[in-house]
Amino acid sequence: MDPYVNMQIVNSIAKIEFYHPKSNSLPSEVLSNLALAITKAGENKKVKTILLTSAGDRVFCAGASFDELLAIKNQHQGKMFFSGFTEVIKAIKNAPKFVVTALQGKVIGGGLGIVSASDYVVASPEASAKLSELSIGLGPFVIGPVLKRKIGLAHFSNMALDPTNYKAAKWGLDTGLYSEINEQPKLRATEVCSCYAQYSPMAMTAMKKMFWEKHNTLEEDMDNKAAQSGKLVLTEFTRKTLKEFKSR
Question: What is the pLDDT of residue 216?
Answer without folding.
Answer: 80
